[in-house]
């Protein structure tokens, strides 16, 4: 673990470990460039990072509290300048693209059982506050008067906060937080420090006291969102079997902290289209071997106050109980015809997709599904765009599962790390908590010749790639992004739509509640995605910002979940803890037109789209600017190819192929909707779909990519 | 026989012989001028264990440890970790504790830990007494062994010991997580949800 000096010569220096930067790093190292990849943070992936619960609390701390972030001492490195060079300083403040960070905790701070257990000393520190409450929590019946006041206090504070936010700058928001911090820190002066996770104990302690407005709701929690067994007091059958938790017991804040490592909470919420650019790149480059994935298992939508499943695959359509036989037929016919261009659709060019759908006389149900959940379009999306999205959706179906989407185990933050590993494997050098102070530019050529790192070392290089946050505002074409995203992260105690399996991964589309409002995308992750602890779900909400994240998203949260603000939300999952924040929309960040040397390239940070096309496209474009002649991410050799494996000679591909063949066979046999499917004329369509897939295989040179559609039905 | 893939990650200071150990284990080869591991994401070797075959996927740090910048994904899903030190370098033993701590923070909970004191062919310039290292390993319930990648001493044994400590396959329910790797082929079709 000894620290060494960095080498002083590289081909490419890359600042920031977000997805686009990491892909560029991997691509450059792969073709033999010497890459230095730095991040000023102590963690990988920047704005794309995922955090443990405790890690997220530190992140929150960093982004509230008006924390003056690592303002490095001002150095004068001008002695390192050579003749004909000038110095361009990079941004040394952390001009983080995050604002309006707000946290609410709606669960009790700790539960009795834990108090009883002789636990590590840090658990004891809050007993004084909790003294009067424990019994009530345990029974889940009485609600201590104390929590009423907590609730009121919380609401008051919230209103205050909101008023101030309207039209107010972040600075004010930060001031508010600072005030709170002082109050709270004084209020609990003698608390021992909680040491948890990899962050400083003091920070966390402050976070607990400062940002979190405790607001326990303990009444009527017998009716969990999970299933229909209320009052009985039996263990929740569908909850993670490893946990022997009684039904009524709500997971406390202390438990969230204790199990904090089981959370991997992404700042960005996206999914991977199974035939999207990211999946293709992962497979093409062999980076995919570093990660594992799960299918998104359901597409849901929110309508008339209820969460409904959207039938999107043929199997779904036929199995659907919401749709009438007539609707099923119409939907199948539409989806089939949609695969080809028709004259009809040309007539609608430039007109909204909604009009086109209306013209198809599909009825309200189908129209809603097609517009909001399948095309993920709005009421004014043009027809050609809506149809293109619908086709993309359909193309992605059935490659890996019943929906077009995949999600990586441990969260999206894994993906940049995977590309970084690929870069490292090909000789790239990694250094976190390390930045670049300035670029040294040759005046005559306007090219960057070297950088000075944060320790004053001159490192020569031919190209520099920077994440937008490392560039001083004055050098950007527009000082601030023109669009922001509103994000919320919830930890809940049940799924928005309970079903046989409690391990569902769902994408929920929530149409705008009023015309012109933003539509909200909700992704619900179950514990088997390794992003949350057993017994909880991790819910990500995302929309284009209209105002603050809290104002944009809390109405949806209140309607779809149970919080102290919800009215009459029996059977809805309870929110245990939630976080709101705004972040810059990377698709609104200019990456051209900076006042920077011609061999310095800017990455925008994450965009608001559901897929990863934006970042992957950006990375590929930068790679081709740096190395116009080289191939972008050719496959890395398989370990099996370079190393003689003494025992077995069967390639893993062969084995898997066999296993799969069998499973598919089984699938065919038990297809519930199968007969019906054939009755409905599904056969013809299957052929078409298969033909299309075959074409694609040929193009990709992928031999065995087909997953029989039959097994889907 | 069923093949079980086991990810093993290697940790330890630079130059202690991590790559040399893998190279010895996988290829039964030792190279004095081994270049930093380039191009190999991980190396594999399959060994029999009871009525299973254990296919080790051995991950080397790829140098990301040099500037304290190992990514959490490096540890994900590891069945075992081998922390290597150099018996001729006291420093490399002292940083062992940091690696153990790092592993506790980022590694899976049930990971099997093995400590390997490498270069035991250089006994005459030893700086780390075997007893001390052994006691430390016992204190954290880790496997302990001294190895020489150069003379092929105890390298096989190291992995055999790990193999034995790997708990038998858990009940398939927990395991049927339905997660998969992306390959040029699709994964098995999953149960449909309705
Ligand atoms: C014709 C077209 C229309 C688009 N319309 C929108 C839009 O209305 N709103 C928006 O936010 N983004 C739109 N996009 C961009 C798209 O949303 C992003 O590519 C998306 O985020 C998917 O990223 P991915 O990396 O997962 O898959 P991709 O890499 O995007 O998917 C692989 C291929 O599918 C195509 N594709 C991707 N997305 C779409 C799509 N939505 N419709 C049709 N083809 C697609 C791409 O051309 C690409 O070659 C559009 C893209 C295209 C090509
Ligand atoms: N005498 C002796 N030398 C060894 C032994 N194992 C490794 N070495 C030497 O130690 C040096 C470093 O070995 P590596 O395997 O590259 O070490 P590493 O831990 O992989 O180093 P990094 O990849 O830089 O982290 C090489 O010169 C090896 O030849 C051993 O058992 N005995
Ligand atoms: Mg090595």
UniProtKB/TrEMBL annotation, chain A:
GO terms for biological process: intracellular protein transport; small GTPase-mediated signal transduction; vesicle-mediated transport. It is found in: Cytoplasm, Cytosol. Residues 485-607 form the RAE1/2 domain. The keyword Cytoplasm applies. Belongs to the Rab GDI family. It comes from the Eukaryota. Its main location: cytoplasm. Residues 171-185, 655-680, 688-700 have a biased composition (Acidic residues). One of its GO terms (molecular function) is GTPase activator activity. Residues 108-202, 223-248, 631-713 are annotated as: Disordered. It comes from Myripristis murdjan (pinecone soldierfish). Pfam families: GDI, RAE1_2_domI_C. Residues 701-713 have a biased composition (Basic and acidic residues). Transmembrane segments: none annotated. Keywords: Cytoplasm, GTPase activation. InterPro entries: FAD/NAD-bd_sf, GDP_dissociation_inhibitor, Rab_escort, RAE1_2_domI_C. This is CHM Rab escort protein. One of its GO terms (cellular component) is Rab-protein geranylgeranyltransferase complex. The keyword Cytoplasm applies.
UniProtKB/TrEMBL annotation, chain B:
Keywords: Cytoplasmic vesicle, Endosome, GTP-binding, Lipoprotein, Membrane, Nucleotide-binding, Prenylation. It is a lipid-anchor. GO terms for cellular component: early endosome; phagocytic vesicle membrane. Residues 185-194 have a biased composition (Pro residues). Its main location: membrane. Coiled coil: none annotated. Pfam families: Ras. One of its GO terms (molecular function) is GTP binding. Residues 169-194 are annotated as: Disordered. It comes from the Eukaryota. InterPro entries: P-loop_NTPase (IPR027417), Small_GTP-bd (IPR005225), Small_GTPase (IPR001806). It is found in: Cytoplasmic vesicle, Phagosome membrane; Early endosome. Signal peptide: none annotated. Belongs to the small GTPase superfamily. Rab family. This is RAB31, member RAS onco family. The lineage of its organism: Eukaryota, Metazoa, Chordata, Craniata, Vertebrata. The gene is RAB31.
């Amino acid at each position: 673990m000894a620290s060494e000096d960095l080498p002083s010569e590289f081909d490419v220096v890359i600042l920031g470990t977000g997805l686009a930067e990491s892909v560029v790093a991997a691509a450059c190292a792969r073709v033999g460039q010497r890459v230095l990849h730095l991040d000023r943070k102590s963690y990988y992936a920047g704005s794309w990072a995922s955090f443990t619960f405790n890690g997220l609390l530190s992140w929150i701390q960093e982004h509230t509290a008006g924390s003056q972030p690592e303002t490095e001492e001002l150095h004068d490195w001008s002695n390192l300048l050579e003749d004909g060079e000038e110095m361009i300083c990079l941004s040394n403040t952390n001009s983080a693209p995050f604002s309006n960070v707000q946290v609410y905790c709606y669960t009790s701070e700790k539960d009795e059982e834990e108090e009883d257990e002789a636990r590590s000393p840090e658990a004891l520190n809050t007993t004084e506050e909790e003294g009067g409450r424990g019994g009530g929590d345990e029974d889940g019946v009485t609600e201590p008067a104390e929590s009423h006041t907590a609730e009121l206090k919380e609401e008051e504070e919230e209103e205050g906060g909101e008023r101030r936010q309207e039209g107010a700058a972040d600075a004010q928001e930060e001031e508010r937080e600072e005030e709170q911090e002082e109050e709270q820190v004084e209020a609990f002066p003698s608390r021992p420090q909680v040491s948890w996770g990899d962050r400083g104990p003091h920070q966390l302690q402050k976070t607990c006291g400062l940002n979190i407005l405790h607001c326990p709701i303990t009444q009527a929690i017998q009716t969990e969102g999970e299933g229909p067994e209320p009052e009985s007091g039996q263990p929740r059958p569908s909850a993670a079997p490893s946990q022997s938790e009684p039904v009524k017991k709500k997971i406390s804040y202390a438990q969230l902290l204790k199990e904090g490592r089981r959370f991997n909470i992404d700042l960005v919420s996206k999914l991977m289209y199974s035939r999207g650019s990211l999946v293709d790149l992962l497979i093409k480059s062999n980076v995919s071997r570093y990660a594992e994935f799960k299918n998104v298992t359901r597409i849901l939508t929110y309508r008339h106050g209820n969460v409904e499943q959207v039938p999107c695959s043929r199997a779904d359509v036929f199995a659907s109980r919401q749709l009438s036989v007539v609707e099923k037929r119409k939907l199948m016919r539409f989806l089939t015809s949609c695969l080809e261009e028709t004259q009809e659709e040309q007539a609608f060019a430039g007109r909204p997709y909604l009009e086109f759908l209306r013209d198809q006389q599909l009825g309200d149900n189908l129209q809603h599904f097609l517009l909001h959940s399948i095309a993920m379009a709005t009421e004014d999306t043009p027809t050609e765009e809506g149809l293109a999205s619908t086709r993309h959706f359909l193309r992605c179906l059935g490659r890996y599962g019943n929906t077009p989407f995949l999600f990586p185990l441990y969260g999206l933050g894994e993906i940049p790390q995977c590309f970084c590993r690929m870069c490292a494997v090909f000789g790239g050098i990694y250094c976190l908590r390390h930045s670049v102070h300035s670029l040294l530019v040759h005046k005559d050529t306007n090219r960057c010749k070297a950088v000075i790192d944060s320790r004053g070392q001159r490192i020569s290089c031919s190209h520099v790639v920077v994440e937008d946050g490392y560039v001083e505002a004055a050098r950007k074409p527009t000082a601030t992004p023109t669009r922001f995203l509103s994000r919320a992260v919830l930890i809940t105690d049940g799924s928005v739509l309970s079903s046989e399996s409690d391990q569902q991964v769902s994408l929920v589309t929530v149409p705008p509640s009023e015309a012109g409002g933003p539509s909200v995308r909700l992704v619900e992750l179950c514990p088997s995605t390794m992003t949350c602890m057993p017994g909880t779900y991790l819910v990500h909400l995302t929309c284009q910002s209209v105002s603050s994240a809290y104002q944009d998203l809390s109405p949806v949260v209140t309607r779809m979940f149970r919080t102290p603000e919800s009215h009459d939300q029996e059977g809805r999952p309870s929110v245990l803890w939630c976080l709101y924040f705004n972040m810059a929309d990377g698709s609104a960040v200019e990456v051209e037109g900076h006042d920077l040397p011609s061999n310095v390239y800017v990455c925008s940070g994450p965009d608001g789209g559901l897929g990863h096309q934006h970042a992957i496209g950006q990375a590929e474009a930068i790679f081709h600017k740096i190395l116009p002649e080289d191939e972008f991410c050719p496959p890395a050799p398989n370990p099996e190819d370079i190393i003689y494996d003494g025992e077995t000679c069967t390639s893993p591909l062969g084995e898997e192929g066999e296993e799969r063949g069998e499973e598919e066979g089984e699938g065919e046999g038990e297809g519930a909707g199968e007969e019906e499917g054939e009755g409905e004329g599904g056969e013809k369509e299957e052929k078409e779909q298969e033909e299309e897939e075959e074409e694609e295989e040929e193009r990709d040179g992928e031999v065995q990519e087909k997953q029989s559609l039959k097994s889907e039905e | 026989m069923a093949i079980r893939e086991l990810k093993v990650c290697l940790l330890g200071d630079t130059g202690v012989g991590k790559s040399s150990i893998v190279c010895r284990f996988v290829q039964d080869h030792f190279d004095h001028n081994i270049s930093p591991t380039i191009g190999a994401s991980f190396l594999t070797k399959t060994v029999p264990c009871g009525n299973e075959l254990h296919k080790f996927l051995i991950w080397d740090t790829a140098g990301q440890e040099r500037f304290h910048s190992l990514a959490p994904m490096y540890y994900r899903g590891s069945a075992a970790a081998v922390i290597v030190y150099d018996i001729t370098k006291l420093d490399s033993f002292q940083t062992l504790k940091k690696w153990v701590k790092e592993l506790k923070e980022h590694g899976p909970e049930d990971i099997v830990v093995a400590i390997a004191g490498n270069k035991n062919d250089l006994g005459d310039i030893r700086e780390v007494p075997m007893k001390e290292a052994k006691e430390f390993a016992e204190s954290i319930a880790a496997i302990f062994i001294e190895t020489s990648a150069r003379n092929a001493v105890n390298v096989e044994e190291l992995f055999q010991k790990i193999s034995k400590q790997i708990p038998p396959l858990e009940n398939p329910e927990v395991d049927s997580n339905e997660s998969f790797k992306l390959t040029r082929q699709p994964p098995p079709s999953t149960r449909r949800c309705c």
